[in-house]
Amino acid sequence: MNKKNKTDEKKLEREYVIPLRKQTNKVPRYKKANKAVKAIKEFLAKHMKVEDRDLNKVKLDKFLNEMVWNRGIRNPPAKIKVKAVKENGIVRVEAVEMPTNIKFKKLREEKIKSQSQEVAKKRKAEKVQEEAADKDQNGVEDKKETEEKKEAVVESEQKIEKAEAKEAKHTTEEKSPKEKKNMKVSYNKASQGQ
Q1: Which has fewest Cβ within 10 Å: 1, 44, 51, 166?
Q2: pLDDT, tens digit, for every residue of 99-153?
Q3: pLDDT band at 58 (very low <50, low <70, confident <90, very high)
Q4: In what order do the strands lie in the sheet with 79-87?
């Protein structure tokens, strides 16, 4: 059990020249490229000792696939040189020797990928700087907002105190019911003209 775990952790790398002619001659012309791809997977599953010879665990590079299909479905290459790397039970395969047109496609794609990564790094750095600037501005704005809130709270407390003071005056100035009657009587007499 320990031996299996150690071999799984290791990275197994090999180069093969895979014969395809014998396999592709077994099928009609309109299926030859499909059979060539399947033959590559079967060969690598056998020679790289893939568990249960599962073809789903053998992954072809898109440029290798394009190389097989380069001359059309009816005329795949008779043999192909590949580099296979096995990690964690999955075999990744790429072509060693490619035609010039596929080499240029691969180089172009790598260049575009590297440029896009550089742009992504720049954008990420700009975003971090913007966030830092926003935090600084928000800090100033937050201080202003908290000061304004404190002032509003103080003003509302002062208003409440004034209202309470007015109520206290009115309650102390209130007259007894007898005094109110006397005021009414005196008002009535004054209004009658006496």
Answers
A1: 1
A2: 898 899 989 999 999 999 999 888 888 888 888 877 777 666 666 777 787 788 7
A3: very high
A4: 12-19, 79-87, 90-95, 58-60
Domain range annotation of the chain: 2-98
Residue that is written with structure tokens 């320990």 in the block: 2
Q: Which amino acid is at 120?
A: A
Question: Within 13 Å of residue 92, how many CA atoms lie on the same side as its CB?
Answer: 8
C-alpha to C-alpha distance for 161 and 69, rounded to whole angstroms: 89
Q: Of all helices (H) and strands (E), which one includes residue 131? A: helix 100-173
DSSP 83: E
Beta strands per DSSP E along 74-166: 79-87, 90-95
DSSP three-state, residue 194? coil
* Topology at the third CATH level for domain 2-98: Ribosomal Protein L31e; Chain: W; (3.10.440)
